[in-house]
């Protein structure tokens, strides 16, 4: 399968996977490997006295994957900028998945704070991957600031509802044809991921859909296949939809043709 | 003097450096630090002096989505 570009880097897998919510560390590792992902998302929290955090980080390092740190849980520009700066030091990457929550109920990104934080971080040399709503004008404003990658949601985080507004997502794809677009959050089924890729999105980022499945490792395989199917479908250019049926089997030479 | 590390009160010597306070706390790498909401790069921890009531956030890698 062809690769896509993320701030100048060629990324082979079109599935970005999260590292949270798995039933066990070993299932997390197996699921990440099964996904074929090149990028895994991580975060920072207060250091605990227990050894658990150290073990987790060692497991992630052992995968050899690139890490994409996030600013999950931040509600203000100041919090998000500080956390991004801390992530850059710990994870030694300029990439930051910028999350700035505006509403606690559906964890909807705050578009105004997101723009403000994005500008600050881009000015500081970060390569910002903003988690945003599927609002075209917001995406355009983020692109205007210099974001090469945009990550509109499919649906609120952890809902598994899939692409709630395919029209909006299609419009963003059409209006920003040269930007890398990743559907982030809200996916529940491999068919949702396939749909995103069929719309021309470059990749999907998900966590709960795999970690919350009855068998995360098997679901990880399923999502891996789904993004490949969706990408191939997009490249193949689907047939035009029609309202009137037309036979696929030739009618020429049909026996008993209209005998009655 | 009193400071706060990860939400917990701690009593430390006057004029203590941030790196000393972290060592006393038992901080284990990898980590990053902020004081009163401002990031303090690793290279600055030795020379950063703490004041009464300072609040330190000591963060390490965890799972993320």
From TrEMBL, chain A:
The record places domain Thiazole synthase ThiG at 6-250
| UniProt pathway | Cofactor biosynthesis; thiamine diphosphate biosynthesis
Alphabetized InterPro entries for the sequence: Aldolase_TIM, Thiazole_synthase_ThiG, ThiG
Q: Which organism is it from?
A: Pseudoalteromonas lipolytica
Record keywords: Cytoplasm, Schiff base, Thiamine biosynthesis, Transferase
Tell me the compartments it is located in: Cytoplasm
Which HAMAP family does this entry report, sorted A to Z? ThiG
The subunit field of the Swiss-Prot or TrEMBL record says:
Homotetramer. Forms heterodimers with either ThiH or ThiS.
Q: Which reaction does it catalyse?
A: [ThiS sulfur-carrier protein]-C-terminal-Gly-aminoethanethioate + 2-iminoacetate + 1-deoxy-D-xylulose 5-phosphate = [ThiS sulfur-carrier protein]-C-terminal Gly-Gly + 2-[(2R,5Z)-2-carboxy-4-methylthiazol-5(2H)-ylidene]ethyl phosphate + 2 H2O + H(+)
Q: What biological function has been recorded for the protein in this entry? A: Catalyzes the rearrangement of 1-deoxy-D-xylulose 5-phosphate (DXP) to produce the thiazole phosphate moiety of thiamine. Sulfur is provided by the thiocarboxylate moiety of the carrier protein ThiS. In vitro, sulfur can be provided by H(2)S.
Task: List, in alphabetical order, the Gene Ontology terms for molecular function in this entry.
Answer: thiazole synthase activity
GO CC terms:
cytoplasm
What is the name of this protein? Thiazole synthase
Originating gene: thiG
Q: Which residues bind 1-deoxy-D-xylulose 5-phosphate?
A: 158, 185-186, 207-208
Q: Name one GO biological process term.
A: thiamine diphosphate biosynthetic process
* Keyword DNA damage carried by entry: no
UniProtKB/TrEMBL annotation, chain B:
Instruction: Identify the InterPro entries for this entry.
Output: Beta-grasp_dom_sf, Mopterin_synth/thiamin_S_b, Thi_S, ThiS/MoaD-like
Return the NCBIfam families for the record: thiS
Matching entries from PANTHER family are given as:
SULFUR CARRIER PROTEIN THIS
What's the protein here called?
A: Sulfur carrier protein
Organism name: Pseudoalteromonas lipolytica
The root-end lineage is: Bacteria, Pseudomonadati, Pseudomonadota, Gammaproteobacteria, Alteromonadales
């Amino acid at each position: 399968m062809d690769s896509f570009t993320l701030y100048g880097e060629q990324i082979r897998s079109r599935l970005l996977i999260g590292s949270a919510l798995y039933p066990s560390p070993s299932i997390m590792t197996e699921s990440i490997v099964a996904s074929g992902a090149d990028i895994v998302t991580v975060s920072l929290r207060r250091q605990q006295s227990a050894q658990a955090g150290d073990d987790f980080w060692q497991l992630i390092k052992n995968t050899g994957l690139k890490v994409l740190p996030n600013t999950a849980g931040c509600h203000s520009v100041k919090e998000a900028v500080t956390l991004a700066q801390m992530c850059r030091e710990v994870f030694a990457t300029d990439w930051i998945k910028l999350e700035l929550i505006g509403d606690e109920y559906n964890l909807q990104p705050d578009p105004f704070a997101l723009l403000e934080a994005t500008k600050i971080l881009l000015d500081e040399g970060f390569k910002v991957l903003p988690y945003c709503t599927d609002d075209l004008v917001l995406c355009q404003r983020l692109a205007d600031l210099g974001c090469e990658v945009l990550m509109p949601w499919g649906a609120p985080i952890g809902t598994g509802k899939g692409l709630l507004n395919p029209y909006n997502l299609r419009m963003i794809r059409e209006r920003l044809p040269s930007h890398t677009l990743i559907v982030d959050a809200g996916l529940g089924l491999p068919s949702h991921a396939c749909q995103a890729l069929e719309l021309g999105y470059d990749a999907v980022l998900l966590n709960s859909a795999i970690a919350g499945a009855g068998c995360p490792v098997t679901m990880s395989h399923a999502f891996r296949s789904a993004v490949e199917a969706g990408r191939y479908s997009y490249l193949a250019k689907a047939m035009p939809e029609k309202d009137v049926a037309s036979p696929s089997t030739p009618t020429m030479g049909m026996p008993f043709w209209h005998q009655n | 003097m009193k400071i706060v590390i990860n939400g917990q009160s701690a009593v430390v010597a006057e004029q203590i450096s941030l790196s000393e306070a972290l060592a006393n706390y038992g901080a284990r790498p990898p980590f990053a630090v902020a004081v009163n909401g401002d990031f303090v790069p690793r290279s600055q921890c030795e020379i950063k002096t703490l004041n009464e009531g300072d609040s330190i956030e000591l963060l390490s890698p965890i799972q993320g989505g």
